[in-house]
Amino acid sequence: MSVTAPECEGDVSPFGISEREVEAISSRADPAWNEISVTPCLHAPKLSALTGTELYLKFENQQYTNSFKERGALAKLLSLSEEERARGVIAASAGNHAQGLARHAALLGVKACIFMPRRTPSVKVEETRALGADIVLEGDNYDAASKAAAARAGETGEIMVHPFDDPHVACGQGTVISEMLAAVPDLDVVVVPIGGGGLAAGTAVIGKRIKPDLKVVGVQAALYPSMLNALRKTDRPCGGSTLAEGIAVSEPGQLTRRIIAEYVDEIVTVEEAQLETALCLLLNTQKTLAEGAGAAGLAAVMAHRGLFRGKKVGSIICGGNIDTRLVSGVLMRDLARHRRLARLRIELIDVPGQLSIVSDAITRADGNIIDVAYHKIFNDLPAKQTYLDISVEATDADHMDRIIAELRSVGLNVDFANY
To answer: Domain 19-67+167-331, CATH 3.40.50.1100 — does that match?
Structure first.
């Protein structure tokens, strides 16, 4: 997409709100903004060397609710009149938007009601409730909860706060790039996760107001290329279980797609394995926990190196809310992917002493045994033979090769049984 520096007619901004409102949001003029952290934007030397860039990370996972969503929620709340605040606000969300809106509504003395799908994990429900919001569990998914919330807003007069397709929300999200450019004024490009498009729209408009030649690259999960479909008139499949659930949006916003079409330079997609690798790199090299969407920027820099090589790049770690069991699984899968962990299947004669032969060989190769499982019944081997599945830890892929070579050197038939 070709992009020019943003221009406005009169005092109306690209968001459709006044330039005065944009300035008030961008400058964080209201004291209520003191409750939102100016999160660090730090150079990542190890990842820079790995990606061939000069990479800076914006740690939005360090917000109070561990997500950038607080920014847009507060911007919307501050735009309301006293009469509108008295009516209260309502939203549909099972994640970061719910907590961001709940927190800042409570701080401003505004009643908030959040509709969540019935299948929302109880921990998310309780965390949002603890921030002061009333919770209504409705529908089997976000779309159903959103329709129910809109119906109630129509009946009660409560103000609906959309998670992304709202001018104040999108503008509020753009305060992220204001802080990034204050910290690193000569950024060449910023890479931004895109779900519904609020963060990307705000980043593109506000970023190019400050630095007109700033390039903005959006990134979507390959399973949810909804913004690409909307802008390029394609019909790529959209759906499935993605690690980046925060950007798993099937229908992007109308306002956000208009802004992104004009101000975002490029949109790329990343595969699930690339998201997993990026999440693990952030945890292992930066010692920071990102949710899948928060790792999308780094995944894009690694997957599309030609767009970023040799440039000063900013990547937004947009959130850090991820289930700890999922993190554990991703980390273990990453070890397997790099052959630091493997499950080996070994054919044995079903006689005493065979396990000692296996363990002695692995010990000689300095491997570490994690677990062992026999399969005497469920196999197609002759009755006097059996399978042994053994999980082994190595320092790297070459070390794993040495372990396997040692096992084979004593006459054992060894194969991988990872899948």
So the answer is: yes
pTM of the model: 0.89
Query: Pairing state of beta strands 368-375 and 385-393?
Result: antiparallel
d(CA 326, CA 91): 27
**Rounded Cα distance, 218 and 222, in Å:** 12
Quick check: 168 and 17 in contact, CB under 8 A? yes
pLDDT of 9 strictly over 70: no
Question: Do 219 and 189 form a contact (C-beta atoms < 8 A)?
Answer: no
The residue whose two tokens read 């009333």 is: 134
Q: Residue 364: beta bridge partners?
A: none
- What is the band of 379 on the pLDDT scale with cuts at 50, 70, 90? low
pLDDT for the residue numbered 273: 95
Instruction: Count CB neighbours of 142 within 10 A.
Output: 20
Least confident of 80-89, 154-163, 221-230, 346-355: 346-355
CA distance 42 to 278: 17
Provide the residue ranges of all domains of the chain, joining segments of one domain with +.
19-67+167-331, 89-157, 339-416
Cα separation, 415 vs 251, whole angstroms: 45
Sequence-distant (6+) residues with CB within 8 A of 143 are none
Cα 245 from Cα 293, distance rounded (Å): 7
Please state the rounded mean pLDDT for residues 363-383: 79
CA 318 to chain centroid, in Å, comes to 7
Record the tokens describing residue 126, joined without a space.
């309780």
Distance CA 331, CA 322 (A): 13
- Which of the two residues, 87 and 94, has the higher pLDDT score? 87
Q: Is 89-157 in CATH node 3.40.50.1100?
A: yes
Neighbours of 78 (CB within 10 A): 19
Longest dimension (CA), the chain: 88
Q: Over the range 349-375, which residues count as b (16 or more CB within 10 Å of their CB) and which as e?
A: eeeeebeeebeebbeebebeeeeeeee
Residue showing tokens 């006293």: 82
DSSP 151-206: HHHHHH-PEE--SSSSHHHHHHHTHHHHHHHHH-TT--EEEEE-SSSHHHHHHHHH
Amino acid letter, 184? V
Closest Cα to residue 174, out of 145, 203, 133, 152? 203
Q: How far is CA 227 from the centre of its chain?
A: 16
- Which CATH topology does 339-416 take? Alpha-Beta Plaits (3.30.70)
